[in-house]
Amino acid sequence: MYGISVTYSPILSLIYLSYCRKIIGIERINLYFCIIMMYYRRKILLSILEVFGGQLNKINLQKLLLLFSKYQDKPYFEFVPHRYGCFSFQSNWDIQALKTYGKIKDTGKGWELEKMTSFRNELTADDRNKLSHLHRVYKSFSTDELMRETYIKYPYYAIRSEKAEELLTEVEFIRVMKQKPEKKHSALYTIGYEGITIEKYFNKLLLNDVKILCDVRRNPLSQKVGFSKKQLKSVCDALGITYIHLPQLGIPSEKRQNLVTQKDYDVLFEDYETNYLINQGEYIKIIFDLVEKNQRIALTCFEASFCQCHRSKVAKAVTELEYWNYELIHL
């Protein structure tokens, strides 16, 4: 359409949208991009806003979204424990995209639909019924009541809340605190983000009480939303995890081409260990020192399997240091 090649990458689509607005000046492009980027999960967000009168404060939307997601057999959103309880980074990025497309606006107090267009009818019949039930049950709940409801029903998401102790009884608050992982032993973890959401990734880190995330990618860029350096660090900051980038331990991208079989990976990693990693003792020692000082550190890269990722070789080098006496765990 209009000679523009469209990709489903959210970042590239926003770039195209900006280009069309500034250079081509075709207003219909807005509608075009809204159509191609209107994922089902975004219709859920818009539908929740719609049934609750077209506007919700930001905390209420997150709480209602969690409650709705728990009704679903296969939820479209996942959550992490945040400063006011459950929070979905994916939903927040979707909301920002919907704001860019002119579907909603930020009122300063919350989110409001630009137009009361019905998106409910574009949901499945089952989800429409679940949405109606959500509205019947929670239409009169205040923000504090919604927070309390989610804290009681799903206490894990309240472990980082600034409001939990205030809103809950002593017994209820103790139940929340029992969900908080507090591991006493020191360990080095490794984790990849291939095939999982940003929330599932960080819940793995939080449940293992990881204190520092060491990114060992040479170039910390990703087409997967949330995993490029700036966004990854931002999420770490929000969840109380320190982010450190150690590009010196990465493998140049040109060496990672045409990796098909496990043997291909084995050949690459043998070369990496023999000709490169052996000269990076300074940075291996940095990781060791971080484990000693902070107890639980995670090395991260892309691949789901540590067998197909150089982070396993970095971890191996750390465990081979003379004074290593800790556990190595691949998440």
- Poorly predicted regions are 1-13, 19-36
Could you spell the SSE succession in H and E letters?
HHHEHEEHEEHHHHEHEHEHHEHE
Report the β-strand fraction as a percent range: 5-15%
- Number of contiguous helices: 14
What class do helices, strands and sheet pairing give?
alpha/beta
The fold-level CATH name of the largest domain is Cobalt-precorrin-4 Transmethylase, domain 1
Radius of gyration: 23 Å
The rounded distance between the terminal residues' Cα atoms is 44 Å
* Biggest sheet, spatial arrangement of strands: 8-7-9-6-10
Shape: globular
What is the CATH architecture term of the largest domain?
Answer: 3-Layer(aba) Sandwich
Total domain count: 3
Sheet with most strands: 5 strands, parallel
Would you mind describing this structure in some detail?
By secondary structure, the protein is of the alpha/beta class. The protein has 3 domains: 1-37, no CATH class; 39-177, no CATH class; 187-330, Cobalt-precorrin-4 Transmethylase, domain 1 (3-Layer(aba) Sandwich), CATH 3.40.1010. 47% of the residues lie in helices and 12% in strands. It is built from 14 helices and 10 strands. Strands 8-7-9-6-10 form a 5-stranded parallel sheet, with helices on both faces. It has a 3-stranded antiparallel sheet with strand order 1-5-4. Strands 2-3 form a two-stranded antiparallel sheet. The protein starts with 9 loop residues before the first helix and ends with a strand.
